[in-house]
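Input for the complex:
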Amino acid sequence: MNRSFATLAVAASLVGVACGARPVTYALGAETTPPAELAGADAEVVRNNCTACHSLDYIVTQPRGKGDQFWRDAVNKMITVYKAPVEQPDANKVAEILAKKFG
Ligand code: HEC
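Predicted:
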């Protein structure tokens, strides 16, 4: 008796949930505008290799003036730690561009 009452209660609540379910619609925010420093054709290689996992903004909000080695290390970390699929020639180009633009 108790058991069938429990079953009935569960079934009733599931029906309630099902009836209350409605498709969720929501407006997506605007795409983040690419940072001005990386708008040129020079930056295409950065976009192609570095935006699968995070935005360009995330890259360019790093502190300035860290030097070339910082950017080489950053790119290497993406490849070795996070397994970013970046070929070595592209990795070199990206590090060079970022070092040039962001110091
Ligand atoms: C496979 C995914 C992936 C790709 C592709 C990728 N990153 Fe990242 N990156 C991450 C993750 C995950 C973090 C966040 C680490 C954290 O929050 O600690 C990150 C963080 C960063 C940071 C912030 C500093 C840091 O070390 O955490 C920089 C700068 C950065 N990425 C640069 C790049 C550049 C340049 C490229 C292109 C060569 C790139 N990323 C491509 C996954 C990726």
